[in-house]
Amino acid sequence: MTITDGLGRRPGGRSARVRAAVRAATLSELAEKGYAALTVDGVAARSGVHKTTVYRRWGGVEGLIADALEMASEEPWPIPDTGSAEEDLRALTRLVVTGFTDPDDGPVSAAFIAAAMQDSAAAVALAGFFASRHEQAARIVTRAVARGELPAGTDPAEVVRAAVAPIYYRLFVSREPVDAAVADRAANAALAAARAGALG
């Protein structure tokens, strides 16, 4: 199977460099200005890529967001492997909290969520991003089942969703603060549900 860059071209060479430059510029613009102020002109100026090229390849802001998310979904996630389901899940939820509270990464992560709520292409790309993250994080649960820490038949994806859902609720629904303590409680609740067989 031929791997392409998502636009029908093989990666490598100038095409890959242009995509990387535009993606880096998109992330920087999001971090500094947020989704509402993201423009093709701003990304073009920051990346050094002519705006006609950006329009031709990405179509507009929505395409820039979708492509940045697609590239992010292809990147490996540092999944914890401590030998303990409890510690792994806590480390995972703390990783999610850090992703939204970090001064550099937080605004970008929040901008991706905002974009997905306003644009269908961004929403599809965000769904793909989360699917990739859940697939990687599922190894925590698979290992825990193999060690006998969780019941056979536990659904790895459901455990991951249960662990991270309270964090997203606080961030984007109730607008409550999140910290390591919140992360640990969310992980503990998911683990308790899994041990009780509720997430099979």
From TrEMBL:
<dbReference type="Pfam" id="PF16859">
    <property type="entry name" value="TetR_C_11"/>
</dbReference>
<keyword id="KW-0238">DNA-binding</keyword>
<keyword id="KW-0805">Transcription regulation</keyword>
<dbReference type="Pfam" id="PF00440">
    <property type="entry name" value="TetR_N"/>
</dbReference>
<feature type="domain" description="HTH tetR-type">
    <location>
        <begin position="16"/>
        <end position="76"/>
    </location>
</feature>
<dbReference type="InterPro" id="IPR009057">
    <property type="entry name" value="Homeodomain-like_sf"/>
</dbReference>
<dbReference type="InterPro" id="IPR011075">
    <property type="entry name" value="TetR_C"/>
</dbReference>
<protein>
    <recommendedName>
        <fullName>HTH tetR-type domain-containing protein</fullName>
    </recommendedName>
</protein>
<dbReference type="InterPro" id="IPR001647">
    <property type="entry name" value="HTH_TetR"/>
</dbReference>
<feature type="DNA-binding region" description="H-T-H motif">
    <location>
        <begin position="39"/>
        <end position="58"/>
    </location>
</feature>
<dbReference type="InterPro" id="IPR036271">
    <property type="entry name" value="Tet_transcr_reg_TetR-rel_C_sf"/>
</dbReference>
<dbReference type="InterPro" id="IPR050109">
    <property type="entry name" value="HTH-type_TetR-like_transc_reg"/>
</dbReference>
<keyword id="KW-0804">Transcription</keyword>
